[in-house]
From TrEMBL:
Domain Glycosyl hydrolase family 92 N-terminal: 31-284
InterPro entries cross-referenced by the UniProt entry: 6-hairpin_glycosidase_sf, GH-type_carb-bd, GH92_a_mannosidase_put, GH92_N, Glyco_hydro_92, PNGase
PANTHER family: PEPTIDE N-GLYCANASE PNGASE -RELATED, SECRETED PROTEIN
Keyword Hydrolase among record annotations: yes
Protein name: Sugar hydrolase
Coiled-coil regions listed in the entry: none
NCBIfam families to which the protein is assigned, alphabetical: aman2_put
Gene3D superfamilies for this protein: 2.70.98.10, alpha-1,2-mannosidase, alpha-1,2-mannosidases domains, GH92 mannosidase domain
Key words, A-Z: Hydrolase, Signal
Domain Glycosyl hydrolase family: from-to ranges: 291-752
Single Gene Ontology MF annotation: peptide-N4-(N-acetyl-beta-glucosaminyl)asparagine amidase activity
One BP term from GO: glycoprotein catabolic process
Length: 774
C-alpha cells in the first residue's frame, strides 16, 4: 500500500481505537508492512511468502559496523534517503543484524558505477534516492521508483524464489549490478569466499560464505533473467586485485564467464529493452544445482508468483477474522502478518538442507525450518502459531528442532539459530517449552520419545550457560556465570515444561527430577528485598544491589531485577507468597508500572525501549507481567494495564512498534491481547483472560473448528469486563483452557465503564500455578 496510507493512519491513531467506524477491508488489505520500519521495530517492507526462505527487500544502508548496525538490523530504515539495492535475506524485527545476501541494483545508461557510493553525495555510486510517495507495500509485494535512474522496481517472492521486475527508461541501456560484497552487519573479512558464473543456458549461479553473527554460513543462488544478456563484467575488488579504469560495457573484465574471490561485483548488461526486465532468483544452502532446482519448483513469471503468494497470504491471514476500527484492524492484521514470517523454510524443494554440523542432510517427511529466535518466541509467537497454522506446519517446527539437535556437535537443541547455524545468542534452552507446548496441545507427527530425550540432553549439558553449576547448586552462581539470576529462573521454567511432557508420556522418574528442578527459582529469590538476585557460589547474594541497574554481562539478561523478579510463570502463586501475599504482590506490580524513571539513563542498553515505569514492553521479559494481577485476584487491574500498554506501545505508521519485533513476539503479544487472552505459561494449556480490543474476532482453527470472541459494548469508555460467558454459560474465572478454545464456540465479553471487582477474584478462579494446582 502507498506510504501515504500509513501516514494517514497515524493521524487516526489520535482517535480512540474503539470509537472509529469498523473497517470493511480484508485482513490482507489491512496489513501495513511499513509498521515497525521506523523507530526500533527493525521490520522490513519487502516481499516474502508465509514462512518463506526468501525475504526480498530494499536495503537502505549496508555499510554499518558492529553496534552501529542496530538501527539497520533489517536492512531498511524508513528515515533513510537512499536505497542501495535489493537483497534476498532479512530478519523481521531482530535485535541483531546479519543477512542481506546477494544484493541486486538496476542501473541505466552508458556508464555504470560499481561502488555503492555515499548516501550524502548523489551520483557517487549506484545507490539511488527515492520518495516514500512512490512506495507500495503489501504482503508478498513491494514497489518503489528509483529517482536517480528513473527505474520502477517491483519485488515479489514465493517460498524459495524471489522475483524482480524493473521498468527502465525507454531507449536507455539496461544493466544490473550484483554485489556479492554487500552484507548487513559489516566488518573486514566477513565474506570468506564468493563465486559467480554464467552457465551455457544463460542462468547465472554463484555462492557466498560469510562469518558474521552465524559462523561459516554458506548460501548459493541461481538467477534466471527474462531477457538474454548482451554483455557482462565480473570483477574482484580485493586489494591488489582491483581492475582499475573500468567504467562500462566493452572495458574491463568482460571476458570472464566465472570468477571467485572475496570481494566480487558483477555488471550484467541487457541492452535497450522494450519491456520490463524480470529476474527470478532462488536460494539454496546446499549447492548451485539446488538453487536451480528451487527455481524450477516455482515456475511462472512475476505476476504468477505474486498472485500465488497473495493467495497464500490471504489464506494465512484468514486464520483470524477481525472486526474492529480501522487503526486497530491495521495494527492487529499487521501483527499477525509479522508473526507468520518465521521460522522460515530452509530446506530445498527436494528436502536437502545444510545443518548445524555444516553437512548436507535431507528432511524426510517434513520441511526443515530455521530462524528460531527462541528466547523471544517461546512466550507468545509459537503458542499463536499453534492456533493459526496447520498441525503439519507446527510439527515441521518441532522436527526441525529435533533434527538440529541430532546434527549439533554438542547434541543440544537450538538456542538462536538461522540458516541452520547456531549463534549462541540469549539464554535458556527455550526450544524445550516450544516442543512441550506443542505436544501438550495435541500436535503429533514427531517422535515424542526422541523429543523428550533431546529436551533432557539440552537441560543436562553442563558446559552450556553454567548448567553444571546450576545442576549442582540449584542456581547459577554469578561468580562463575554472567547473567546468573536470569539464567536460574529461565532454566527453572524450562525444567517445568520438561516435567510436564514427561508426565504426559508416563516418564514419572524424569518428571519427578525436573519438577524438583522447576523449584530452583526460589534459590535466587531474596524475600528480604522482594527481588530476584544473583548469588555467589558461597550462597551469598552479590552486593551492592540496585534493582534498576541494567548492564550487559551483569546479573540479568537485557533487563534488571524489576523485570526478572516476575519470571516464575509456572508458579506465580508461590512467588506472590514470598512477596507477602496478594496485596503485597499488587502493590509491587503497581510500583513497577508507576516507577519514576526521570533520573535513570538506559541509553547504553539497546533493547530497553517502551518503558512504563520499570515495565519494559520493548523487550520480552516484561511481556507477561500485566496479566499477573489476575493471579492475585484483581483481574480489573490487568484490564487497566493492558489499555495503558496497547495505547502507548502500538501505533500505525513506521514507528508503530516500541521495540524490535523479535521475529514476531512483539506482534504476537498484540494479537493475543487484542483477542482478550494471553499464554502466560506455555505448557499449562491455559490462556489468562485480559480484556479484548476488537469488537469481534473469529479464529479458524487448524482442526476446522471456529472460536469466536465477541465484545459487547466495547468503547473508549467501556474498557472493563462486566461479565464473560463461554458458549452462553457464565465464566467466572480469569482463564480459559486450550481444550475449550480448540473445541470451538463463543467467548463473549460484556464491557462496561467501571471495574467489576467481584468477577474472577476467588482463588479457584485464578490461573494455573504449580503450588495451587488442583
Amino acid at each position: 500500500m502507498p506510504s501515504s496510507f500509513p501516514r494517514a493512519l497515524a493521524a487516526l491513531a489520535a482517535l480512540s481505537l474503539t470509537t472509529a467506524p469498523l473497517a470493511a477491508q480484508t485482513a490482507y488489505e489491512s496489513v501495513d508492512p511499513f509498521i515497525g520500519t521506523g523507530g526500533e521495530g527493525h521490520t522490513f517492507p519487502g516481499a516474502v511468502a508465509p514462512f518463506g526462505m526468501v525475504q526480498l527487500s530494499p536495503d537502505t544502508d549496508t555499510g554499518c559496523v558492529i553496534r552501529e548496525c542496530y538501527g539497520h538490523a533489517a536492512g531498511y530504515r524508513y528515515d533513510d534517503p537512499t536505497i542501495q539495492g535489493f537483497s534476498h535475506t532479512h530478519f523481521s524485527g531482530a535485535g541483531h543484524s546479519d543477512l542481506g545476501d546477494f544484493l541486486i541494483m538496476p542501473a541505466a545508461g552508458e556508464s555504470v558505477l560499481l561502488e555503492p557510493g555515499d548516501a550524502a553525495k548523489p551520483g557517487s555510486g549506484y545507490r539511488s534516492r527515492f520518495d516514500h510517495a512512490t512506495e507500495t507495500a503489501q504482503p508478498g509485494y513491494y514497489a518503489v521508483t528509483l529517482a536517480d535512474a528513473k527505474i520502477r522496481a517491483e519485488l515479489t517472492a514465493g517460498t524459495r524464489v524471489g522475483v524482480h521486475r524493473y521498468a527502465f527508461p525507454a531507449g536507455t541501456p539496461a544493466h544490473l549490478i550484483l554485489d556479492l560484497r554487500s552484507v548487513l552487519y559489516n566488518y573486514p573479512g566477513k565474506t570468506l569466499w564468493s563465486s559467480i558464473r554464467i552457465r551455457p543456458d544463460g542462468t547465472i549461479t554463484g555462492s557466498r560464505e560469510t562469518r558474521g553473527w552465524a559462523p561459516a554460513r554458506k548460501l548459493f543462488f541461481a538467477i534466471r533473467p527474462s531477457t538474454p544478456l548482451t554483455g557482462h563484467a565480473f570483477l574482484n575488488r580485493e586489494e591488489k586485485i582491483d581492475y582499475k579504469g573500468f567504467q562500462g560495457p566493452g572495458r574491463g573484465r568482460d571476458d570472464l564467464d566465472q570468477l571467485a574471490g572475496r570481494a566480487l561485483v558483477a555488471r550484467l548488461d541487457f541492452g535497450k529493452l522494450d519491456k520490463p526486465l524480470e529476474l527470478q532468483v532462488a536460494l539454496s544452502s546446499v549447492d548451485e544445482d539446488g538453487a536451480i532446482a528451487n527455481l524450477d519448483s516455482e515456475p511462472g513469471g512475476f505476476d504468477a508468483i505474486r498472485a500465488s503468494t497473495r493467495t497464500a497470504w490471504e489464506q494465512a491471514l484468514g486464520a483470524i477474522e477481525i472486526e474492529a476500527p480501522a487503526p486497530t484492524k491495521t495494527m492487529v492484521s499487521t501483527a499477525l502478518y509479522h508473526a507468520l514470517m518465521a521460522p522460515s523454510v530452509f530446506s530445498d524443494a527436494d528436502g536437502r538442507y545444510r545443518g548445524p554440523d555444516d553437512q548436507v542432510h535431507k528432511a524426510e517427511g517434513f520441511t526443515f525450518h530455521s530462524t528460531f529466535s527462541l528466547w523471544d518466541t517461546f512466550r507468545a509467537e509459537h503458542p499463536l502459531l499453534l492456533l493459526v497454522q496447520p498441525e503439519r506446519r507446527n510439527a515441521d517446527f518441532v522436527n526441525s528442532l529435533l533434527a538440529s539437535q541430532q546434527q549439533s556437535p554438542f547434541g543440544i537443541l537450538p538456542v538462536w539459530q538461522f540458516h541452520g547455524r547456531e549463534t549462541w545468542t540469549m539464554i535458556g534452552y527455550h526450544a524445550v517449552p516450544v516442543i512441550a507446548d506443542a505436544y501438550l496441545k495435541g500436535v503429533r507427527g514427531f517422535d515424542a520419545e526422541a523429543a523428550l530425550d533431546a529436551m533432557v540432553k539440552s537441560a543436562s549439558y553442563g558446559p552450556y550457560g553454567g548448567l553444571d553449576h546450576y545442576m549442582k547448586l540449584g542456581y547459577a552462581p554469578i561468580d562463575k556465570e554472567p547473567e546468573a539470576a536470569s539464567k536460574t529462573v529461565e532454566y527453572a521454567y524450562d525444567d517445568w515444561t520438561i516435567a510436564r511432557m514427561a508426565r504426559a508420556l508416563g516418564k514419572d522418574q524424569v518428571a519427578a527430577s525436573f519438577e524438583k528442578r522447576a523449584g530452583n527459582w526460589r534459590n535466587s529469590f531474596d524475600a528480604k528485598t522482594g527481588f530476584l538476585r544473583a548469588r555467589k557460589t558461597d550462597g551469598s547474594f552479590r552486593t551492592p544491589f540496585d534493582p534498576t541497574a541494567i548492564n550487559y554481562g551483569s546479573d540479568y539478561t537485557e533487563g534488571n531485577a524489576w523485570q526478572y523478579s516476575w519470571f516464575v510463570p509456572q508458579d506465580q502463586a508461590a512467588m506472590f507468597g514470598l512477596l507477602g501475599g496478594d496485596k503485597a504482590a499488587v502493590k509491587k506490580l503497581d510500583a513497577m508500572f508507576d516507577f519514576d524513571n526521570s533520573k535513570l539513563d538506559y541509553s547504553h542498553a539497546e533493547d530497553i525501549a517502551g518503558l512504563i515505569g520499570q515495565y519494559i514492553h520493548g523487550n520480552e521479559p516484561s511481556h507477561h507481567v500485566a496479566y499477573l494481577y489476575a493471579f492475585a485476584g484483581q483481574p480489573w487491574r490487568t484490564q487497566e494495564r493492558l489499555k495503558q500498554i496497547v495505547e502507548s506501545q502500538y501505533k500505525t505508521g513506521p514507528a508503530g512498534l516500541s521495540g524490535n519485533d523479535d521475529l514476531g513476539q512483539m506482534s504476537s503479544w498484540l494479537v493475543f491481547t487484542a483477542l482478550g487472552f494471553y499464554p502466560v505459561a506455555p505448557g499449562s494449556n491455559q490462556y489468562v483472560i485480559g480484556r479484548p480490543f476488537v469488537d469481534r474476532a473469529t479464529l479458524n482453527l487448524p482442526n476446522g473448528k471456529r472460536f469466536t470472541v465477541l465484545s459487547d459494548g466495547l468503547s473508549a469508555t467501556n474498557g472493563y469486563i462486566g461479565k464473560v460467558t463461554l458458549d452462553g454459560k457464565p465464566l467466572d474465572r480469569s482463564y480459559i483452557t486450550h481444550d475449550e478454545l480448540s473445541a470451538g464456540g463463543e467467548l463473549r465479553f460484556t464491557m462496561q465503564a467501571k471495574p467489576n471487582r467481584s468477577w474472577a477474584t476467588s482463588r479457584a478462579a485464578r490461573p494455573f500455578s504449580t503450588s495451587t494446582a488442583r
